[in-house]
Amino acid sequence: MKPKMIKYNKNFVGRKHELGKLFEISNSSEASIVVVYGRRRVGKTELLEQAFRKRNILKFEGIEGLSQSEQMEHVMW
Q: What is this structure's pTM?
């Protein structure tokens, strides 16, 4: 199965500082895990997708309303 290509979002503006940090991390020769957290609906997912749209990424998202065990089962599926 071919991975879904994330399109460039011309309406994604700002976030220069955050994008710079993500590019710095991605250009490092060390392995890294990035955890992004914050309030709902502020653009966390869009930030990551735009920063890494030309790379293969694994993305795990929480699902509102499911218990911890249900969410873990969903990730493992």
A: 0.71
